[in-house]
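Appendix B. One record, verbatim.
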Amino acid sequence: MKELADVALDAARGKGASYADIRINRYRRQFILSREDRIQNTVSLDAFGFGVRVLVDGVWGFAAGSKVDKDTIARMAGVAADTAKANRILQKEPVILVPVPAVVDTWQTPITKSPFRIPMKTKADLLLAINAAAMKAGATFVNSGIFAVEEDKYFASTDGSYISQLLTRVWPNFNVTVVDRASGKFDTRAALTTPIGTGWEYVESYPLIEEAKLAAEQCKEKQGAKSVTAGKKDLVLSPEHLWLTIHESIGHPTELDRALGYEANFAGTSFVTPDKLGKLQYGSSLLNVVGDRTQKNGLATCGYDDDGVKTTGFDIVKDGKFVGYQTIREQNGKFKALGETALKACCYADNYSSVPFQRMPNVSMKPHDWGGKKVGFEELAADVKDGVLIEGAGSFSIDQQRYNFQFGGQVFYEIKNGKKGAMLRDVAYQGKTPEFWASLDMIGSDHFYKLGGSFNDGKGQPGQANAVSHGSSWCRFRGVNVINTGRKI
């Protein structure tokens, strides 16, 4: 690998590059999907190739190839340099990279069992057992699947870095549907599992069969549940629900490229503009949010980003105040005026043929320190007179600046006088990002902290997918606007 990488770096220097890097990567993906009593599909995908990125006169150029040999690598390094020279006419300001130390290192996701070494029959048997449990409990339909991803990455740069990484992610999931044959109405409930940056041991430890039974029972319960009464209510939200709210209302708006307008054409901008850094009260003083690509089991966790920068954790919101953007190496050189001088390692490309650019790290909310005491749903609900419990992530809508939003969920229960009551249906809540987070008045302890996340967070043109996790404990919010989504207009 080093021999091949040095060919690219030498060729780039020979074409006038002041900086160059190469990623030689292999991507493995395996999916197995089922429905009721049959396996529907198995898919195995394997991609191998390289991407060369160069800076010539402060302008980026990039080229990639799937034939990994010295001649092709040298030729594509030249193409990348020629592309940079052609791009000069469009570049208004030169790219400035802050210095980073040379690194020779290896890193891999800490796992016990690789999902790629588990026999397909073992996976198929598990999925069919999940389906059978749900059907026995009353499901009309059930789909289930297991997704596994492995990234074998080699990075080298003219800074003198040579870095090997092996990243593993896995996700077991299902979706249960119960149909009322008389009325034709149906209800669904998805698994509360999350994709996670670990191995097969996560699949073995998660009570998938028991949850499939519960999901079917809850779907039946939904059919007789009363419709929510709209109005201002207190919310007690589970970690399995909150990850999506964190992702959309904190994760995306605090990406510096969005705040500067670089995603405006595709994914939108951000209400968190640079003039708000260090000034905006993002939420209540209880709100503490960190970006962290070193977080245990995080989907975005790795040793080094695709700039070759060592990963780290950093504050985004501290005691309710917005204190830091997610950034990449070139932003630290270009936007020193913002005070963003620390390297935060948020650069990522989803394929060897994709251009690395800013992507979200794991963005998580810290649990509250209760001095070792366990504080979860019961403690948060105890002081709620009229409220709603929401578990699991559902549909959502949010504007292009990540300011106005609406979120649903998987299951809902009323909270009356501190106690969990009857199941509800047709529930969603609306809010404005800083007002919603300002209504946060209690956070559970780390005993109930969980990660949620997405395998496929989309961004960029051409589009790329990023895997990212978001953690939290149980949280309580006061006086949030709850709407009835089932009301006919």
